[in-house]
Fold this sequence. Notes:
This protein is mostly beta strands and 173 residues long. It contains 1 helix and 13 strands. The strands form 3 sheets. Strands 2, 3, 6, 8, 9 and 11 form a 6-stranded antiparallel sheet that branches. The longest helix is centred in the first third of the chain and has 10 residues, at 2-11. Mean pLDDT is 75; it is low at 1-11.
Amino acid sequence: MVLCLIFSAAIGANAYTQTFYVDNDALPDSGGSNHRLQYYFANYITGSNHFNSDARIHTDWMYFNTAFYMWNYNNSIAGPSNVDSTTVQVYLNDSRFNDDSALYEFSWTNNIGGTTTLEAVYNQDSAPAGWSNVFYDKSTYMASAPSLCVTTRCNDYGIGTGADGVRFIVEYA
């Protein structure tokens, strides 16, 4: 029994977690960028309830009923074989973020040159204030900087889709 406990403690000895942040309007030192990959999320809003005190919102009456906003983390966050899992969280803390069917897409290039994309519909209207889990991926193949896209498909007046902070929580084996 003692040998088993010592052995199992040694297996996880090199495991660690890192957290990477990307804001809706990336700070110069954040490693994030999104300015070239937004489509009609033009409404810039501020307030102490937002991550880094600002956010973006698309409402159905602005421009078109479909719009998207993409966050990119410009630096590689993973080696090709040591990622154990990745959790993607979005920051939602504004009553105007009330889209009950916001479409999120999480993408990265794997270590054999292919692209992996996961999709999820998330209810921003019932999300708790603060960080919300949108994706959890148990994959060891992430090799490139990840991106996250939110798309609105608003059909009703008064629906607002929010784009604020994103964080990638990467667990390494």
